Amino acid sequence: MTLSEIFDILLAWTPYMAKGFVMNLQISGLAILIGTTVGLAIGLLRLMQSRFIALGARGATALCRNVPSFVMMFYLAVMLPQEIALPGGGVQPVDPWIKAALALAIPVAGFLSDQIVGAEISGRRLFGPTLRIASAQYAMIIVMASATASVIGADDLVARAGRVAAITDTPGFLTWCYVYAALWFFAFGLLARAGLNFLALRNARD
Prior knowledge:
The protein is mostly helical. It has eight helices and two strands.
């Protein structure tokens, strides 16, 4: 297969794979939303006067910070139910991407908890430029980490890349599909980095 033929096939499947990348962004967005909410609560609890509450919050932060999200994905995939019974008698499936988002929310919570305490100790504004930029950088990491969601059945870009290779059934094409998927994340990283640089320059001027 020539490079031109490979390019044509990948181009034809681009809309399909783009929907997979949207799933990666969806996973990341939910993980950041949940993780930020939980991390904010834990961080504020760490600053409370009660030693018992603060100690418990520090333990929760350590757990969030040190448990690998990849391991948590497998754990949640097994431990959480495949479907939830609804009050009216129906059932609601629990999609794998939700479990992946919950797993990725755990390190986000630990990160934000530490940032809040660090801001309090150093005297920085709680939601000042430093925390915003650090959070944006960590969000980029979560988007990259969302590529692991396919291992528990999430229909993301990596899963779709493998599916395209299987449908095409051409020797060696799997490598090209994964290279193409990697380029999506690489391009997103470049755009996000440019945005972070813009924010950093803007904050420096302010």
